[in-house]
Amino acid sequence: MKMSSSATMGASKRRLSSRGLGGALREQRAKLYIIRRCVVMLLCWHD
Question: Which entry of 2, 19, 29, 44 is 20 to 30 Å from 10 by CA?
Answer without folding.
Answer: 29
